[in-house]
Amino acid sequence: MDLYYYPTSPPCLSVVLLTRELGLTPNLKVIDITAAEHMESEYRELNIQHTVPCLDDSGFVISESRAILIYLVETYGRSTSLYPSNTKHRATVHQMLFFDQGTIYQRIYDYYIEPVFFSSTPLDENKLKKLEDGMEVLDLMLEKRKWAAGSDRTIADFALFSTVSVAKTFGFDFEKYTNIMEWHSKVQSSMEAYQDLYQAPLETVGELFQNKLADING
């Protein structure tokens, strides 16, 4: 099993964390997106989307991190708690995965990642407001839930944890989002054994972000 990834990417981080949770040891192959390695012909032949992460499981190739999470837990999961069999519970997991992808991660990308890492432009306060609105919705969702999708920890927690962790690293102010902070701390505690997987990459991307932002702002 080969996992093509970039260490500081939130979607990649969620997949790496889940592989450790499931006791899997994929061959980790770094694709340096900052050096445009994802655009090289060899990688594009493997993954026509030329994105990371991408999983090659004995010839079965799949991209999109949340699809990979589902594939891994359905194929290698030892219990149903991470991806419940009950259709209503599973639908809630899907809801949170799609909310993460289409709202929280997308707005983090729009406000922080695209301007700083790709277009070298100042941060846009209007995009910050949209991100804050998304976080407010997530905070309300977590108000009556122990975990992201209900009473059990699921793959939705892996996806959202990685996304929220990067927002924290970039300096997003979570002070008023108390439910998110309580949930994030709980998820982090449940992953203490994997701290080596995410702590160093997050610190690295945080330092890089601050340096690039300082250059942009002069």
TrEMBL record:
<dbReference type="InterPro" id="IPR004046">
    <property type="entry name" value="GST_C"/>
</dbReference>
<dbReference type="InterPro" id="IPR040079">
    <property type="entry name" value="Glutathione_S-Trfase"/>
</dbReference>
<comment type="subunit">
    <text>Homodimer.</text>
</comment>
<dbReference type="Pfam" id="PF00043">
    <property type="entry name" value="GST_C"/>
</dbReference>
<feature type="domain" description="GST C-terminal">
    <location>
        <begin position="86"/>
        <end position="208"/>
    </location>
</feature>
<dbReference type="GO" id="GO:0006749">
    <property type="term" value="P:glutathione metabolic process"/>
</dbReference>
<dbReference type="InterPro" id="IPR010987">
    <property type="entry name" value="Glutathione-S-Trfase_C-like"/>
</dbReference>
<dbReference type="InterPro" id="IPR036282">
    <property type="entry name" value="Glutathione-S-Trfase_C_sf"/>
</dbReference>
<dbReference type="GO" id="GO:0004364">
    <property type="term" value="F:glutathione transferase activity"/>
</dbReference>
<keyword id="KW-0808">Transferase</keyword>
<dbReference type="InterPro" id="IPR036249">
    <property type="entry name" value="Thioredoxin-like_sf"/>
</dbReference>
<dbReference type="InterPro" id="IPR004045">
    <property type="entry name" value="Glutathione_S-Trfase_N"/>
</dbReference>
<feature type="domain" description="GST N-terminal">
    <location>
        <begin position="1"/>
        <end position="80"/>
    </location>
</feature>
<dbReference type="Pfam" id="PF13417">
    <property type="entry name" value="GST_N_3"/>
</dbReference>
<protein>
    <submittedName>
        <fullName>Glutathione S-transferase D9</fullName>
    </submittedName>
</protein>
